[in-house]
Amino acid sequence: MLSSVAVLSDIHGVLPALDAVLAEPDVRAAERIIVTGDIAAGPQPVEVLDRLVELGERVLLVRGNADRELVDWARGGHGDPPDPIAPWAAAQLRVDQIELLAGLPHPVTVDVAGFGPVLFCHGSPRDDDEVVLVDSRMEWWSEVFGELDGRIRTVVCGHSHMPFVRLVDRRLVMNSGSIGMPYGGAGAYWALLSRGPVQLRRTDFDIEQARTLIRDSSSYPDVDEWTDYFLNSRASDFEALTTFGPRDGRPASTQ
């Protein structure tokens, strides 16, 4: 059973944001770092994967939908990309990194002290691209959790890039937010599970310095536009909820 877990999600290939979080004392002290998906689809895919692999067995990577899509593109995918940066990021990856992403599990259950068995997923326990939100209806949560083992009382997810903690029929559900593409406010968002209440955290870093570092290392053609929009969190949480909302099965009349 793990004594403490730092939860990182949706890094999206932003190395300066990842490094800022990895430097946090509570992350350095955590027994395990669990990354709940969408790791490399961004301007520094190779560098981010190398940094995480350097940390060895302390890091447990969970598959996100963007990780799966990168593998598809790297192996000859075609059609409209889910994100304009995806085909470029896929083309940067080494063979070993493609194989790493292809082999990632989803979901993963780990015993954590004070929480018992905790399920870590990206979208939802049953689908890495499924949307669950802080304001999703109870009927939707019941459907999403319908086949979940009753012993699991804590679920940690990612995907929506917005941090929240809420109860769902006696289960604690948490989203740690996004490291590299936050919605609702700049910074790198993560969380800590350590014997007590879930702790949502946010790490500040120098956005302009990060943009310069990324610009100097990335050949992505639209890197300046990408980093301005996502590192500065130009999209509000309201806008993100409005965009994601129709994907959680809610009636159109509630929008």
The total strand number stands at 10
The percent range for helix content is 25-40%
Would you give the CATH topology? Purple Acid Phosphatase, chain A, domain 2
Number of helices: 10
Weakly predicted, low-confidence segments: none
> What is the name of the CATH class?
Alpha Beta
Ends apart, CA distance between termini: 42 Å
Per CATH, the superfamily is Metallo-dependent phosphatases
Most strands sheet: 5 strands, mixed
List SSEs in N-to-C order. Answer: EHHEHEHHHEEHEEEEEHHH
* Tally of individual domains: 1
Strand content: 15-25%
User: Which structural category do the helix and sheet elements fall into?
Assistant: alpha/beta
Rough outline: globular
Q: Which strand order does the major sheet show?
A: 3-2-1-9-10
| CATH-derived architecture | 4-Layer Sandwich
Verbal overview:
The chain has a single domain (5-254), classed as Metallo-dependent phosphatases (Purple Acid Phosphatase, chain A, domain 2). 33% of the residues lie in helices and 18% in strands. The chain is built from 10 helices and 10 strands. It has helices at 15-22, 25-29, 45-54, 65-74, 85-92, 95-102, 138-144, 207-217, 223-231, 237-244, and strands at 5-8, 32-35, 59-61, 108-112, 116-120, 154-157, 164-168, 171-175, 188-193, 199-203. The strands form 2 sheets. Strands 3-2-1-9-10 form a 5-stranded mixed sheet. A 5-stranded mixed sheet has the order 4-5-6-8-7, with helices on one face. The chain is globular, with a radius of gyration of 17 Å. The relative contact order is 0.18. The mean pLDDT is 95.
